[in-house]
Every structure is written in structure tokens, then in C-alpha cells.
């Protein structure tokens, strides 16, 4: 289990981690690419019930033996992704980058970093993925560029450069004193002094990631052109990195200290002047228009760590004209198995988002894996099944992170010298950075877990790979991987598991989370019951108020150890057991 300061830091970094997006008009070819073989009626866009799979390309599959994953490696693994029934893959950034933040510092938005392959490889990926019924979503970092971007190089060259105002430059308060108290999410002041022009530039993240000035219309124009470039290539949309951070207070007022300090030793600030400013919604509406001008239901996904459901709703747009899928981080990052909290948050997502589709996520490249965040050290394997059920059985788009489906564990570096993630260097030893959740995918029990034939991989292979790997788990009927596959199949095969409302029942039970999936035109109601405790639980359901008069229930899927109860009045769930069944 992670300790408190790490949880807090995780959330703070989370609060600042971004999202994507994009759009465009285009040729018939791009139209086909946006709407692959599985095109559906406009009323049900493909993303509405999608399973999206996040790939951290450095760590998925290495095809050229340099110890770093690449585009051709992803192509080699498309059969696997298809077997998982993934509808789209989101690739974290593969653009040219000095890799200070492993790609989230982009120096050229319209090219591929040679480390990952070529533009021809990328085009091949789009085409090959389409053959596998998989769409490709790009990460789009609009908040900041690399300090090696030609835009920033020009901007910093002189105060009168035409690109000066593309970034946020200010005078300090005095010699060596930054313009205000704003802090970087990666530790310490968010301002760096540039001796050439004797001003400070703002960076929400690393100093090598200067923030773009979104109050300058030329910035929007340039970034939207970038989006068009990729939409024309046929990407299915964008994951918008750190998108709530686009705007800052135009008066540059200090933020309020809210007490305590973070893992970097900085005071905690309320972030009211640098995050989630209302101006961002105008940009989202414009971006959505751009995306909608392309055929094929291109999608905008937001990296939106938001404090409450009201803010979450705003990101869909008052007229459903902003993001289709702002990530819901409130459910997946509760970080403890508390049935009451899950009931409340999931119910909010169902009832307070104006019918919009929530996007649930438990794992990503910025946070310790759910295995570790939710595990109790004793029942981790069962709890991983609980997490899978929480992700895949409510009415929500599901976002998975590579390795989640086999139970990869967070494996942080052992010494500071091993740390790759810059933020881990700043935060060491309190915060060890994000390497632990970015270790190479575990494909088999051979050398380097089948990830690479290099002598050294960019991050070490976790010791668990001998048993925790795709090959071994594919062959074991009761593996976590097969549990995921069964849940995914259940979603795919039962319309009510896609469309049905999520209705909480047995609402006062502190140990078992129970909900119905119900939609009369889509067949019988389904009951999902999840035991959040390490004790056996027996439940007596009374569902007459929900139109269920009988007490019969037929299992569709359940974890091991169920007593095959078929009576709603005496349902016994083993510790961390999951039951999914059809009601009569
Ligand atoms: C969010 C990304 O997910 C994270 O990895 C990155 O460091 C920050 N945004 C800055 O781009």
C-alpha cells in the first residue's frame, strides 16, 4: 500500500496531468480511416461503449533490440490487442522530443521520434490497426512544448521576437525573485529565469516544458493546425494532456497556501490561479468543432483530474459541445476499497452527468498501479479481479493501461541512480517518480519477458515476469487475464451491459457494492455484486421497487468460490468475490 504522502503527491501530480484531443476536415481517405470497418449509426458513436487501451510505447514491445519499445513493436502485438477486444489504443507521445519528460516535452508536433520509428511506420500502424478493428488515439500536449521547440527557441531569443508572446514571460519581483508563488507540479517554483532577456518564463511542469500562452490566438491557430495534421492522417482522436492547465490568471496573483507541504517540501497551494480556469472551455468548444468537422466520430478525451462531479459535468459542455470523454478520476482513484465511497461516486457519475458517458480509469503511466493502490498485501490477486469488475461492469467507457490485465505490479527504482523519471530525481527519496508503473510489458517467461532481446532494457523487468505474463496467463483458465477477457466479452455480448443504467441497490451495505444494469429494451436486468471485504458476506436483496418480483438469479460470471446461489434472498459472496447474474 502506498503511504499517505505518496497518495497526496500522486493526486497532486494527477491533478495536473493532462489530456488530448483533436479534429479536422478531410479527404475521403481520412474519412475511411476515422470510421473503420465497424462504422455504426451516427446515434451510437463507436466511443460510447469503447474499451480504450493505453500504451506507453517505450515499454510495450521493442522490435529493433535497443531496449526501448517502438511503433513496429506495437504492430507485432496487434493480434493480442484484438484478442482483448480493444476498440482503440491511446499512445502516449511519440513525437520528437529531448525526452526530459519521456515525450511530454515535444519539440516537433508533426513528426515521429526516430527512437520509435518513422512516419511510414506510423502510417502502417494506423492501417494495420484498422485491419484489427482498432483505432489509434494520439496524445496531444497543448499546454506546453519542449524548451527545444523552435517556437520556444525563437520566443526566448529576444523580447521583440514575434513569438515572444507565444509563451508566458514576466518580470521578477526583484533580483532572483520570481513573479509570484506559483509552483511546478514537479516541484518548486513554476518560474525559470532566462538571463538572455532577463525575464522569467512559466512552466507548470518541468523547466524544460515552458507553458504556451493560450491567450494568444496564434497559439490556438498553430495547435489546431497540428491537430488537423494528425486527423488528416486518420487518427481517431486525441487524449488531451494536462488540459485543465491551459490558462492562468491574467493578473498573475499568488495562490493561497492551504496548509502543509508536499513531497518536494513546497507549501500546498490551492491552484486556483493556474488550473481549471473558465477560459479553457472556449478552447474546448472550438476544438470540438474542429474534430466534428471530420467524419468518423473522432473523439476528445481529457486528462481531467477534477475535484467534483459538477466540474466534471462542465467538461462535456453545456450543449455537449466540448469533450466527449473527460476522464473521471474520482472513481478510479478513491484508492481504497470502501463500498460506500464507490457507491456514492459511481452513482454521481450515473445520475449527475446529464446522461453523458463517464470514462472510468484505474491505471495509467502517472500513478502506482491499482494492484498496489488497492491491494492489501494478502488478497491482491482477488482485489485485482474486483478492480476489473469495477472498471468493466458499470455504464462507462473503460480505459485500461497495458499490463493491468495480467496484474503487473508497481516496481519502483531501488536507488536514486536508477531513476529515469526526472520528477523522481527531484522527489527522491520521498517520491520515487513514475518508473515503477512504466516497466516493460510482460509477454512471456523468456529473456526480458519477451519485451526485447537487448542486453539492457530502458527500465528493468520486474521479477514477477516468470509467472505474471501474457503467455502463462493465456494458458491458465482462471488467470486474471482470462477474467478480464470474460468481463470484456460480457460487455460486448450483452446489450444491457453496454446501455443499461447503473442503479445502486442494497445501498446501506458497508461491505458489498451491488448494482443493477437495467434497460428494458435490452433484455433482462443484470445484478452485479462485489464483496469489498476479506470476510464472506451474505445478502438478502429486496428488488421489488426496481420491478424485480421473483427471487431467481442466473449467474453470467462469477469469481471462484461462489456457492452457486440462485436465490436473491440468500446470496453468499466469498471474500472479494464478484457475482454477475441475470434476474428473472
Ligand atoms: C500528464 C502526463 O500524463 C504526464 O506523464 C506528464 O508528465 C504531464 N502531463 C506533463 O505533460
Description:
With 584 residues, this protein is α/β, with parallel strands linked by helices. It has three domains: 28-145 and 217-485, TIM Barrel; 150-202, Oligo-1,6-glucosidase, Domain 2 (Oligo-1,6-glucosidase, domain 2, Alpha-Beta Complex), CATH 3.90.400.10; 501-583, Sandwich (Immunoglobulin-like), CATH 2.60.40. It contains 17 helices and 20 strands. The strands form five sheets. An eight-stranded parallel beta barrel has the order 1-2-3-7-10-11-12-13. Helix 7 (217-233) runs parallel beside helix 8 (280-292) and helix 13 packs parallel to helix 16. The radius of gyration is 24 Å and the shape is globular. Residues 1-41 have low confidence and may be disordered. Bound molecules: 1-deoxynojirimycin (NOJ). 1-deoxynojirimycin binds at residues 17-18, 101, 104, 141, 205, 241-242, 303, 365-366.
Amino acid at each position: 500500500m502506498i503511504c499517505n504522502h505518496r497518495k497526496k503527491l500522486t493526486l497532486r501530480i494527477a491533478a495536473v496531468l493532462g489530456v488530448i484531443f483533436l479534429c479536422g476536415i478531410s479527404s475521403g481517405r481520412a474519412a475511411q480511416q476515422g470510421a473503420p470497418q465497424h462504422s455504426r449509426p451516427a446515434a451510437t458513436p463507436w466511443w460510447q461503449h469503447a474499451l480504450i487501451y493505453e500504451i506507453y510505447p517505450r515499454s510495450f514491445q521493442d522490435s529493433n533490440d535497443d531496449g526501448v519499445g517502438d511503433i513496429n513493436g506495437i504492430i507485432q502485438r496487434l493480434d493480442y490487442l484484438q484478442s482483448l477486444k480493444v476498440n482503440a489504443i491511446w499512445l502516449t507521445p511519440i513525437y520528437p522530443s529531448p525526452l526530459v519528460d519521456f515525450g511530454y516535452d515535444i519539440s516537433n508536433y508533426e513528426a515521429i521520434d526516430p527512437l520509435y520509428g518513422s512516419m511510414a511506420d506510423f502510417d502502417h500502424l494506423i492501417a494495420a490497426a484498422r485491419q484489427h478493428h482498432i483505432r489509434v488515439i494520439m496524445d496531444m500536449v497543448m499546454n506546453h512544448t519542449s524548451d527545444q521547440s523552435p517556437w520556444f527557441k525563437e520566443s526566448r531569443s529576444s523580447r521583440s521576437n514575434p513569438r515572444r508572446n507565444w509563451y508566458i514571460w514576466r518580470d521578477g519581483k526583484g533580483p532572483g525573485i520570481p513573479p509570484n508563488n506559483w509552483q511546478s507540479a514537479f516541484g518548486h517554483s513554476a518560474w525559470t529565469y532566462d538571463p538572455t532577456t532577463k525575464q522569467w518564463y512559466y512552466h507548470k511542469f518541468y523547466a524544460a516544458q515552458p507553458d504556451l500562452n493560450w491567450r494568444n490566438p496564434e497559439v490556438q491557430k498553430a495547435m489546431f493546425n497540428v491537430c488537423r495534421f494528425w486527423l488528416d492522417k486518420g487518427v481517431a482522436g486525441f487524449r488531451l494532456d494536462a488540459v485543465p492547465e491551459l490558462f492562468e490568471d491574467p493578473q498573475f496573483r499568488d495562490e493561497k497556501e492551504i496548509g502543509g507541504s508536499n513531497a518536494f517540501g513546497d507549501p500546498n497551494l490551492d491552484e486556483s490561479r493556474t488550473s481549471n480556469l473558465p477560459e479553457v472551455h472556449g478552447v474546448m468548444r472550438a476544438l470540438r468543432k474542429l474534430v466534428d468537422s471530420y467524419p468518423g466520430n473522432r473523439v476528445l478525451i481529457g486528462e481531467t483530474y477534477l475535484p467534483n462531479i459538477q466540474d466534471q459535468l462542465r467538461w462535456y459542455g453545456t450543449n455537449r459541445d466540448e469533450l466527449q470523454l473527460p476522464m473521471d478520476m474520482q472513481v478510479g482513484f478513491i484508492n481504497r476499497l470502501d463500498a460506500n465511497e464507490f457507491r456514492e461516486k459511481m452513482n454521481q457519475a450515473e445520475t449527475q452527468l446529464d446522461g453523458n458517458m463517464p470514462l472510468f480509469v484505474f491505471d495509467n503511466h502517472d500513478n502506482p498501479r491499482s494492484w498496489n493502490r488497492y491491494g492489501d498485501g494478502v488478497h491482491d490477486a482477488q482485489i485485482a479481479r474486483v478492480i476489473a469488475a469495477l472498471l468493466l461492469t458499470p455504464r462507462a467507457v473503460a480505459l485500461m493501461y497495458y499490463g493491468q490485465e495480467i496484474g503487473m505490479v508497481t516496481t519502483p527504482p531501488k536507488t536514486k541512480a536508477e531513476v529515469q523519471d526526472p520528477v523522481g530525481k527531484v522527489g527522491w527519496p520521498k517520491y520515487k517518480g513514475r518508473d515503477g508503473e512504466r516497466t516493460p510489458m510482460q509477454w512471456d517467461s523468456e529473456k526480458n519477458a519477451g519485451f526485447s532481446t537487448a542486453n539492457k532494457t530502458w527500465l528493468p523487468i520486474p521479477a514477477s515476469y516468470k509467472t505474471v505474463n501474457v503467455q502463462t496467463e493465456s494458458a491458465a483458465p482462471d488467470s486474471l487475464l482470462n477474467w478480464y477477457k470474460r468481463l470484456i466479452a460480457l460487455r460486448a455480448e450483452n446489450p444491457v451491459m453496454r446501455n443499461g443504467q447503473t442503479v445502486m441497490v442494497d445501498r446501506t451495505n458497508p461491505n458489498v457494492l451491488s448494482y443493477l444494469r437495467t434497460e428494458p429494451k435490452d433484455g433482462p436486468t443484470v445484478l452485479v455484486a462485489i464483496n469489498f471485504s476479506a470476510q464472506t458476506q451474505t445478502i438478502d436483496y429486496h428488488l421489488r421497487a426496481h420491478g424485480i418480483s421473483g427471487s431467481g438469479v442466473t449467474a453470467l460470471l462469477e469469481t471462484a468460490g461462489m456457492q452457486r446461489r440462485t436465490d436473491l434472498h440468500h446470496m453468499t459472496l466469498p471474500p472479494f468475490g464478484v457475482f454477475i447474474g441475470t434476474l428473472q
